[in-house]
Specification:
This protein is mostly helical. It has 2 domains: 97 residues, DNA polymerase, domain 1 (Orthogonal Bundle); 176 residues, Orthogonal Bundle (hpI Integrase, Chain A), CATH 1.10.443.10. Strands 1-2-3 form a 3-stranded antiparallel beta sheet. α1 packs antiparallel against α2, α6 runs antiparallel to α8 and α6 crosses α10. The N and C termini lie far apart (75 Å). 26% of the residues are buried.
């Protein structure tokens, strides 16, 4: 086992135990770091010799391979985290990645659905099938609560508080937040539970998870993606739709309805307000109408 492999393993443990990152985030860091490890191993470069010039050459190779600026920025971010860890552990005295510059990344506007499109998708669900009401409850929860797909599959009954009107969500980095739960979500979950879930054989350890597969076990991310993709195809939707599209739609429709940006930030669990601000760019006609209607120079 060479030094890169040992430090990679220790880095993963650090992300998991000390940083408390989700498995998907850890996998992304590990996947990007392995690109650097492969590059260095091919050139017999050990961790202590990986200086700024080595890292620059590595990034140049990524560029030559056609990696987009956004993907390059993600890889560099992961490398910075890794060398920060090495310095923290006293393995290195200096961080060679500190002078690496991130490529300029243009703002990518997320795809979102109109209210009519969401209603069409929900109407396309076959409620005569055993999984029908489950799927409707899931998509209603995704849209009405703005959840990430990982938050949806990990939603538990012990974190739902209908009387108080909110659900407790465990988001990225195991950070908790409270999200308002709408009557429509409560209604759809109740229909699913009473009509389907209560008649299932639930596997031990999965009793608290709200949404289960036909074997009585917690659902996977892939299954949610498949359900959404198939429904979008069934109505002939041309947009590239994923479970995250419902979260984007949640935020966009709140912005269009005049909701406070800080409140949306809290509900989405964004660390930075700048992440939330991207939704203000989605509907330029809405923004123009707001300015025309409310700016004092435009009021007759």
């Amino acid at each position: 086992m060479n030094q890169w492999t040992i430090y990679n393993r220790d880095f993963v443990n650090y992300l998991k135990i000390e940083r408390g990152l989700a498995e998907n985030s850890i996998f992304a860091y590990q996947r990007d770091l392995e690109k650097l490890i492969d590059f260095c191993n091919a050139r017999s470069i050990v961790p202590k010799d990986a200086d700024l010039e080595v890292l620059k050459q590595f990034i140049a190779d990524l560029y030559d391979l056609g990696l987009s600026a956004r993907s390059q920025a993600r890889v560099i971010s992961g490398i910075k985290q890794f060398f920060d860890f090495l310095v923290l552990e006293g393995i290195r005295d200096e961080d060679p990645s500190s002078l690496l510059e991130l490529p300029k990344v243009g703002m990518k506007l997320p795809v979102f659905l109109s209210i009519e499109e969401i209603d069409k998708i929900l109407s396309a669900i076959d409620l005569s099938k055993p999984e029908g009401h489950r799927n409707k409850a899931m998509l209603e929860t995704l849209y009405s609560c703005g959840l990430r797909v990982s938050e949806l599959i990990n939603l538990k009954f012990s974190n739902i508080f209908y009387k108080q009107g909110f659900i407790r969500v465990i988001g990225k980095g195991n950070k908790e937040r409270l999200v308002p739960v709408s009557p429509s979500v409560e209604k759809e979950i109740e229909i699913y539970v009473s009509g389907t879930r209560n008649h299932m054989h639930i596997q031990k350890g999965h009793e608290d998870f709200v949404f289960l597969n036909r074997r009585g076990r917690q659902l996977t991310r892939v299954m949610i993606f498949t359900i959404v993709k198939n429904l979008a195809l069934s109505i002939g939707l041309k947009k590239k739709v994923s479970p995250h599209t419902f979260r984007h739609s949640f935020a966009t429709h709140l912005i269009e309805g005049g909701a406070n940006l800080r409140a949306i930030q809290e509900m989405l669990g964004h660390e930075s307000i700048t992440t939330t601000e991207i939704y203000t760019h989605l509907d330029q006609s809405f923004i123009r109408e707001a300015i025309i209607s409310f700016h004092p120079r435009n009021i007759k």
